[in-house]
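Case 742 in the screening queue. Each case pairs one protein sequence with one candidate compound; here the compound is magnesium ion. For every case the pipeline is the same: read the inputs, emit a complex structure as tokens, and attach any notable structural observations.

Predict complex for case 742.
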Amino acid sequence: MDVLLQGLNDAQKDAVTSPVSVVQVLAPPGSGKTKTLTARVAYHINHDRLQPWNIIVCTFTIKAAREMKDRIRGFVGEKMESKLILGTFHSVARRFLSRYGHEIGIDKNFGIADTEDSKAIIKRIVTRYQYTVEPGHARSRISRLKAKGTSAESFAAKSKKVDDNEFAQVYSSYQEHLKASNLLDYDDLLVRCVELLQRHPSCVSTIQAVLIDEYQDTNNIQYELMKLLAQRTRRITIVGDPDQSIYSFRSAEIQNLYRMREEFPEAVVINLENNYRSSGYILGAALAVIEQDESRPEKALIATHCVGEQPALRHLATVNVEAQWIVDEIKRSKTLSAGLLNYNDYAILVRSANLSLSIERELGRAGIPYRMVGGKRFFDRAEIRVILNYLRCISNPDNNDAIVGVINTPSRKVGDKTVKGLLEEAEVKKVSLWRLVCDIAQKRKTPTTKLSTPAEQGITLFFRLINNARKKLLPVAGEPCNLLDLISYILTQTSFEAYLKQSYKENWKDRWANVEELVGQATQMATALAEGEEIGDDALPAVDGIEQRPDTTVDTLSKFLVNVALATEVERDDGEELSQVTISTIHAAKGLEWPVVFVPAVYDGSLPHSRAENHDEERRLLYVGMTRAQALLYLSCPVKQSGQEQTTLSKFVSSKSVQKYFSQRGPDFAFKRSTVPDLATILRRPCPALEDIEAARKLLERLEDDKYPATREEIDGVDPSWGASWDDGFSGSGPGGNGTQP
Ligand code: ATP
Ligand code: MG
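Case 742 output:
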């Protein structure tokens, strides 16, 4: 049999080998959609004789991307594999714009404004013109409009309400600002790429297949992009699951599934029904949750694993007790598993990032290593942003925002008022802030903004720092730039460590450690980029009729900055070999799986979130979280929140039909009754300590005798944190809960 198809079931094979050009694979979590998509990419290369650069793949996680690349490397070799055009929609769009963007007037050195930059720009506009709109709302609204393809001009033309007028002005000032600073924001990458491909279809004349993972979360502009990318051959494969659509706040459109069937009537739909990820119990519980959505069509989902252990649903007295319980369970199950489980087999998935604080503290106290995904991006930490802003100034001094970010950090006695004045002056004179800085430092022209002597000296110092870096450290075209030299130059010239010590007395050491990590990442990224990995622009082949930009224009520094800007929350990848517990938001955990999963804070107000309007989507979010688990699943809810308010157990898990899947009693802890061999079967892993089943049973007996000390009270049946009403079978309002919404 074809090696490509080994280990796939019949429906998966059909999807991989389908001769039909438009294939939709719709299937529940864990049914092998991503696995199937990967195999189809390889199939296109091996059987349909496509070259890797004829194929565009949009994946959601770095793990899927890596898996895909590994497989394809096996078939076609490393050099060819690196030519596959693979990444998020944003990174694919960026590649096309870097390569051909000049055709629609995009400057070749455009930078990317990330979410933080966009917020800062809008905030400045709003303050300056004393608008009343809330900057955060304005940013999301602009983003939603762009996702629909509504430009600032067309919005202004249509807006009738007074409030809309003000917003229209914010939108157009924001666009002007981006243009003046030669920046594109995340949405622009997609919008402008659509424009490019509409006006210059020859840019995609070599593209013969487009494949998309997690299709249920595409928005309208991504849909347009998909069609345009595939316009030559109309060969598209998408995989997705409507039950896992969780990004409507980023304008994801589930309707895109049906729209695709209308616009591509040749499409075939393939359903996969076997779940290869989770134990029967976990699947049952997850299905019971999602089936409460009455509008949802019924679907088959068959567990291929044994029933395994009943998931746990626990109420604990406080947030801290909950955190303590999670940490105890990690320690206990790890010990009980006799070498089967390591720390990287555990994930704690939270609805919002701020919920992880007490858990982090407990993990730290217990000395358990962990990594955070999906909260604040590493690159968004204050100390890291300062260094990145220096790099951005050096890369493109016309980036006003980057200059504003660092002209007075560390302090050079250039006050906020001065900066504001200079910014306004720059706008009036239609020059960049950097131009004014140069004029001041070189005493060429006196600015209209009044400057104190110290401020003038400060500006001069800043000018010298950036100017010297540009002169000495930026390579001539074509030569690689030494990122490390640049970063250490910034660190020494600004006495960065001393600055951190002075500004952050409490935690400057942690912050300095982050800086050191950035240096490490820069080294790695620079090496990878030098080897043409990740964002190798050369993956886009030459096409007729379109002038190519020489590669040398995109030097290592701007590539590094682009990579940083496009690194999504999930992209941070510490390598598999480190054994760390993962803490992640549920959103960022999409597509991934772990042997053991905890979902804490399952109460109304947290999940569903108090600000969420669409509770069906919140339910799907819990479903996504639960279906990440392979063998053990724990849901928990503190009786009291940190602010002492009583909680009410989430309505998604309070009905009897759902509760029957959970073990709720503290003493009857799920894993204690488990058999380690079952676990090993579900994980398809040999357990080092278990030579055969008999030995396993014996070991388990011994382990069960030797109960884990931290849960002694539980085992004795006296759990102080255990709400009384749990004994009554828990009727829905939560133990001791008074029904107050948090
Ligand atoms: P999600 O909706 O969560 O993204 P998915 O449908 O993409 O899930 P995959 O991640 O592709 O599912 O697969 C889930 C797990 O099942 C993986 O560990 C994968 O290797 C395994 N798997 C998939 N298909 C098979 C199969 N035919 N035989 C054995 N294992 C399989
Ligand atoms: Mg998947």
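Case 742 observations:
- Residues 508-530 form the longest helix (23 residues).
- Residues 7-9, 12, 27, 29-35, 241, 244, 276-277, 591, 593 surround adenosine-5'-triphosphate (ligand 1) (CB under 6 Å).
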